[in-house]
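Try this one yourself first.
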C-alpha cells in the first residue's frame, strides 16, 4: 500500500477545508460593511472545489471510476489529480436596511450592507473545521498503520 497517496489525499482535503474556514472568516469580518463610495459593496465569497479529469490523451474512459477501481485492484498505481479549488464571489444583491440618519443612506433612507448571512457562514465554518479534523484523523491513522507495518517488518 502506498502511504504517500493516503497522506496526499488527507493533505489536499485539509488544504480545501482550511480555505473554506478562511473564506467564512473573511465573509464574517465583512458582514456589516456598507456599500462603498463607488457603489461597489462586498460580495460574499464561496469555495468551489471541482475534480479534475484524469483522462490521458483525450480518452474519456481512462479516468472513469470503474477503470480506476480495476487499476487499483490489479495493484497498479492509481493516478491522482488534486481538485481545482476556486474562490468565487456570489452575485447576491446587497442587504438594504432602513436607516435614514446614516451618512451613507440613499435618497429613500436605505443603507446597502454586504449580503452576508452570519448563520450560514458559522455553519460553513463549523462544518469545514469538522472536515479538517476528519482529515487529520485519517492522516494520523495512516501514519499509525505505516509505523505498525514497519514495526512488524523489523521484528520478522
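Now uncover the answer:
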Amino acid at each position: 500500500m502506498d502511504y504517500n497517496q493516503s497522506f496526499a489525499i488527507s493533505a489536499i482535503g485539509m488544504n480545501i477545508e482550511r480555505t473554506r474556514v478562511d473564506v467564512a472568516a473573511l465573509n464574517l469580518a465583512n458582514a456589516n460593511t456598507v456599500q462603498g463610495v463607488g457603489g461597489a459593496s462586498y460580495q460574499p465569497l464561496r469555495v468551489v472545489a471541482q475534480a479534475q479529469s484524469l483522462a490521458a490523451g483525450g480518452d474519456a474512459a481512462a479516468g472513469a471510476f470503474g477503470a480506476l477501481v480495476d487499476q487499483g485492484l490489479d495493484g497498479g498505481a492509481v493516478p491522482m489529480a488534486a481538485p481545482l479549488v476556486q474562490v468565487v464571489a456570489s452575485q447576491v444583491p446587497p442587504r438594504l436596511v432602513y436607516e435614514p440618519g446614516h451618512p451613507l443612506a440613499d435618497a429613500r433612507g436605505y443603507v446597502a450592507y454586504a449580503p452576508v448571512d452570519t448563520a450560514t457562514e458559522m455553519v460553513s465554518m463549523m462544518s469545514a473545521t469538522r472536515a479538517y479534523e476528519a482529515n487529520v484523523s485519517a492522516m494520523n491513522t495512516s501514519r499509525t498503520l505505516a509505523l505498525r507495518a514497519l514495526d512488524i517488518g523489523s521484528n520478522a
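Discussion: The radius of gyration is 23 Å. Residues 3-31+45-89+116-155 form one domain.
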